Amino acid sequence: MASHAESLKSQYPWTSKPFIVSAPLRAIAGPALATSVSRASGLGFLGAGTDLSNFEQMFSECINILQKSPIPNSLPGIVPIGVGFICWGASLPVALSVITKANLKPAAAWLFAPKEAKDLMEWAQGIRKASNGKTRIWVQVGTVAMAIEIVRSCEPDVLVIQGSDAGGHGLAKSSSIISLLPECADALQREGFGHIPLVAAGGVMDGRGVVAAIALGATGICMGTRFLSTPEAVVSKGYQYAVIRAKDGGVSTARTRLYDSLRGTPGWPEDYNGRGVLNHSFWDHEKGMGEKENTRLYEKAVETGDAGWGDQGRMTTYAGTGVGLIHKVQPAAEIVAEVLREAKKYLTGAQSRL
Ligand SMILES: Cc1cc2nc3c(=O)[nH]c(=O)nc-3n(C[C@H](O)[C@H](O)[C@H](O)COP(=O)(O)O)c2cc1C
């Protein structure tokens, strides 16, 4: 049987080892970020998210970018990027119609946060059919039980194991990948699903995190927060500087549903919340400020533009506990190259300490 790394390499032949993925950051990971990461020998995901009204246009833009300047070793019939859907809110008929109509199919579809785990069967079957089996199914999960349930119901091609350090939304109750990943790997092995490659998400910021995640049993690693500080990410300067300024993510970020209510983005299943940088909205809420007043102040902060972000601001900066390891804005391709280089260096360093 092919190793996990060999099977990922055969499905995504333009990628390097270790396998680096940029997360489908909703409304932030657009065509520029997704194609830059894939061009740099990773797998970039578009963040289609919950609102698919511009999904077709974003996907066509990726096709245009890649037709003008193709990525060597791409497979015929596929676009060498993935697409991420937030399943509780995204329209499955729209997703299927775009994928069916497209001559070239996305290399992977990343499914996340269904209302109920069983909904993913319809997503997985629908996308496999719409893409004539060309689009591989990835599912992001945050507990051992969910990993087992999902592999039994829709046997994904890849499971992304999301730990509690992750930026943005995830399960309110989960552990960090340091224990979650090996426990998932063991449970999947016991259940006869040891052939499914695992990708680690949550807190990986550099080559050290990559080496650690691989030692835990991951074949690939996914970074979300790290790619927020790229020129390709569709975020304002204020957001980006808030990520760069934040240090010591265990205390400067928290998981909360507050930011969803202030931003007017309800709908997340009850067991989910989002990790973001703490700011005056959060502290005022902790001190007992009512939601109406907090929302009013939030909306005023929005009018101030870039100044509304950061620990002295009120606007939402979804980001993970790894924020303290990000020090500058850097092109996505440079991040992928740096992380690949560092992983090899740190692995040698680690070996010498064993
Ligand atoms: C700003 C932001 C937006 C995100 N949006 C999505 C999303 O739309 N869909 C999704 O599956 N995950 C989303 N995530 C979570 C990522 O998939 C991933 O689990 C996480 O970024 C990994 O942890 P890290 O942020 O520490 O790298 C988001 C994360 C961030 C930081």
UniProtKB/TrEMBL annotation:
SUPFAM superfamilies: Inosine monophosphate dehydrogenase (IMPDH)
GO molecular function: dioxygenase activity; nitronate monooxygenase activity
Signal sequence interval, chain numbering: none
Pfam family, one: NMO
Recorded superkingdom: Eukaryota
Keywords attached to this entry: Dioxygenase, Flavoprotein, FMN, Oxidoreductase
Gene3D superfamilies: Aldolase class I
Listed name of the protein: 2-nitropropane dioxygenase
Organism for this UniProt entry: Hyphodiscus hymeniophilus
